[in-house]
Amino acid sequence: MAAVREVPPDNDVHDEVLAATQRRRAQKVQIAAFFLFVALVPLAVHNRYYLHILIVVGLNLILATGLNLLMGYAGQVSLGHAAFYGIGAYVSGILTATYGCNPWAALLAALAVTSLVAWLVGKPTLRLRGHYLAMATLGVGIIVVVVIRQTTGLTGGAAGLTEIPSMTLFGRELQSNMDMHYFYFVWAWVCLLTVLFANLVESRPGRALRALHDSELAAQTLGVDTAAFKVRALVISAAYASIAGTLYAHSSMRFLSPTPFGFHTSIALLVMVVLGGQGTLWGPALGAVTITAIQEALRPYADYDIVVYGLLLVVMMIVMPGGLSRALGALYGRLRERVARHRAGDVAR
Amino acid sequence: MTLAEQIWQFFLSGLTTGGTYALIALGFSLVYNATGVINFAQGEFVMLGGMITAASMTAWGLPLWSAALIGIAGTTLVGIALDRAAIRPARGASIVVLIIITVGASIFIRGVAGIIWGPDERVVPAFSGEAPIGIFGANITPQSLWVLGATLVTAIAMWLTFEYTVIGKAMRACAINPQAARLCGIELSRMISWSLALAAAIGAIAGIVLAPITMTQYNVGTMLGLKGFCAAMLGGLGNGLGAIAGGLLLGVLEALGAGLISSQYKDAIAFVVLIAVLLVRPSGILGGRRGGEE
Amino acid sequence: MSEVLLDVDGLCKDFGGLEAVKNVSFQVRHGQIKALIGPNGAGKTTIFNLITGVLPADAGSAVLGDTQLLGLPTHRIAALGVGRTFQTSLLFDQMTVLENVMVGHHLRGRSTMLTAALRIFGAGAEEREYREAAMQALDRAGLAHLAGRSAAGLPIGQRRLVEVARALAAEPRLLLMDEPAAGLNMRETEHVGEIIHSIRDGGVTVLLVEHDMSLVMNISGEILVLDGGQRLAEGRPDEVRNDERVLAAYLGEDID
Ligand SMILES: Nc1ncnc2c1ncn2[C@@H]1O[C@H](COP(=O)(O)OP(=O)(O)OP(=O)(O)O)[C@@H](O)[C@H]1O
Ligand SMILES: [Mg+2]
């Protein structure tokens, strides 16, 4: 990406430390700009439908970011991530609606349950080499939905779980029919979880994940307990999904049914990460926005929507196997080069 | 009925569904061996086989056997098209990207099928009547025998292909060592085409023999595909004999579980088995070429 | 003589009928540079794989200080102070050179996923400290100008140096180096020799596998010769050089 500069050896140390600090600073600026942008959105968007969609985008962004940690950094695939989303949503929903639990306590309980499930799935399968986690999560994803459907007494089954109370903040209810408040609440979570993610990947454990993704053997000889780190990445990624699930449960519908937590959502999440560009900070966010937008845009064209969606998936993956963010990065690089050449041409003339 | 008789009855009906799982699993293994990819469109081949056959019979009034041939041929063409239009252009992409492409293709195929044939269930008449046949106190329909017969014949045909034909040997060589195979002048992309065409044909056969038992619909492919994949894992992904054994075993386990424990959780049984296999013996009961702890 | 750091005894490894390592015993002393040489396929890399827990041994023992290494997982062995570089250098290609070396600090770091994400309990300070330390390590190795470069694009000579810097960042007691000079030209090979000397002078014991005989003869205090998985000879360079069995095993190759 960046052009390699030839610099005299003496200045190098300082240059490189400087470059690293600059990179981190640039990232902080990006994140801050992102926050600001989000904060201003409701000023421009008054339509409740759009605000609702932006909330959905936020939830997908949290889900995709979590899955990105697992796929883009630890190099493991989950084909059942929607199950963790569903567990988070249903534990929150059941605890608050049926047992009158405080939503924040329910959030923590959901986190604990989801993490435990993730740990139980990951511990035995991540010991093995190969994509066994993908297969195990595929199974878990379907089992969870079947269980939600069949334990009618607890979950409401296919008819759904209703009358989930609103989220509270400092003792005040976040009235879910005033979407603006909930919009800010959800996006505050998005921002928080993005910052945590950015911190994590630029740190000892984050590097350990990237290292084992590249070469497990080399990582191990440097003391990285690769199996343990993969399990931790899975647990954190499931925890992100659980938080998104809790937020979903308390959103404007205040209603849960098994449908959004099935195989198709798992695949949509996978697509967001890969299409956006796994292993990059902003790629999955871009993927989440793109896929949510496509899904919403196609919604009115019932019957034809999945045809177009399927086709788009195939075409986009063929054209940009490295993901949108890398494709855009390359495009930007080429443009800059062209502009630079153009200028050089001007000077020469 | 005594418990033993019940179990015998469940066993027989389990073998029937198991036969279709076996065929679907065979399709997974074929494509996996040629490409290393889990082809999520495999289930759609099953749907297409049944739907094209049913539609040709109602639309053109064709007799069953010619409608079935059209079903197999049409699905095979879709398999080849899938390779040409989606897999080949993405050559060199990572496995995950290729898998997503097959997922996208399966969504696309399902969508088109929904538009063409609508959401209604379709019926294919039983091949040779409905009169049940008694076997040691249990009843089984003639169609079940067709399913098992088709499984057996397909398995033997596959074995003959791989053992005695040039193309079959070439495909085996590719599966064992793609680089060495290329050095011997075997063209990998042609082998991938062949494996997808074969997988589609086998999937279509499964869809056609199954349709009279369960009816068929544009969206049956997903679940059948996923269960076929469980069967392939159970037998050891990439292992042909394992696919057959895994399919039959999975069908029987599912029937026994649904009959004796709870029919509500029927759809979860295959996946519980999948997870159990991963925990206990990840290379499958017959051992996969690439499976296991390294 | 100084005390024994690594004591290998009766090591065996069989690859489905191929006996790659047959009953090999040797010792490495503190502060030593010891070389392991032998023709291709003699079992040198396999011995490294056994000592570092990458492959399970069939029999024998390998004791570091007073800890049995065999049977432990690779990352535990690394934590006990055994570092390693590979015959074909294994860098983390998706990372920069600086980040590669920073992974070398993994064992000394304390931050967990939680503290790192929240930047609490000194996780932020640790990150800066190791970035600084890695930078200095690169500077000492004369690689500072590469810090921001992606590891994937480096030429082989620099890859090897980065790999050594990374292994040293973990502060090992014993460093196993598998053919550090393979693929390097004469000047680079000499440089590697100097680096190995300075590693030893820094207090790290070195066990070296190398085909370049002039390098081996120059820098090692003791040489173990393997052939067909078996110990052929052992001794000081001048002893080994004149050993008839060694000459026979290397027939056609120039030892001097
Ligand atoms: N994982 C393995 N599986 C099977 N055989 C192996 C394995 N690793 C090594 N071998 C075999 O064991 C023998 C010793 O190999 P090893 O790599 O230890 O040799 P070496 O002394 O390092 O050779 P070189 O100088 O070529 O690196 C060789 O015949 C090799 O083919
Ligand atoms: Mg070697």
Content-based structural category of chain B: mainly alpha
What share of residues are in beta strands of chain B? under 5%
Q: What distance lies between the first and last C-alpha atoms of chain A, to the nearest angstrom?
A: 28 Å
When the domains of chain A are counted, the total is 1
CATH architecture of chain A: Orthogonal Bundle
Strand content of chain A: under 5%
What is the total tally of β strands of chain B? 2
Question: In short, what is this structure?
Answer:
The complex is a heterotrimer of chains A (349), B (294) and C (256). Chain A is mostly helical and 349 residues long.
Keywords:
heterotrimer; B: 294 residues; mainly alpha; two-stranded antiparallel sheet; 2 strands; C: 256 residues; alpha/beta; Rossmann fold; 6-stranded mixed beta sheet; binds adenosine-5'-triphosphate; binds magnesium ion
How is this fold's topology laid out?
The complex is a heterotrimer of chains A (349), B (294) and C (256).
Chain A: H1 9-44, H2 48-73, H3 81-97, H4 103-125, H5 132-150, H6 152-155, E1 168-169, E2 172-173, H7 179-201, H8 204-214, H9 216-221, H10 226-249, H11 263-276, H12 283-298, H13 305-319, H14 324-348
Antiparallel strand pairs in A: 1-2
Helix pairs in contact in A: 1-7, 2-7, 2-10, 2-11, 2-12, 3-4, 3-5, 3-10, 4-10, 8-10, 11-12
Chain B: H1 3-35, H2 42-60, H3 64-87, H4 95-117, E1 133-135, E2 138-140, H5 142-164, H6 166-176, H7 178-183, H8 188-214, H9 221-235, H10 240-261, H11 266-280
Antiparallel strand pairs in B: 1-2
Helix pairs in contact in B: 1-5, 1-8, 1-9, 1-10, 2-3, 2-4, 2-8, 2-9, 3-8, 5-6, 5-8, 6-8, 9-10, 9-11, 10-11
Chain C: E1 4-15, E2 18-29, E3 33-37, H1 44-51, E4 59-64, E5 67-68, H2 74-79, E6 82-85, H3 97-103, H4 113-118, H5 123-140, H6 156-169, E7 174-178, H7 186-201, E8 205-209, H8 213-219, E9 222-227, E10 230-235, H9 237-241, H10 244-249
Parallel strand pairs in C: 3-8, 3-9, 6-7, 7-8
Antiparallel strand pairs in C: 1-2, 1-4, 4-5, 9-10
Helix pairs in contact in C: 3-5, 3-6
Magnesium ion binds at residues 44-45, 87, 178 of chain C.
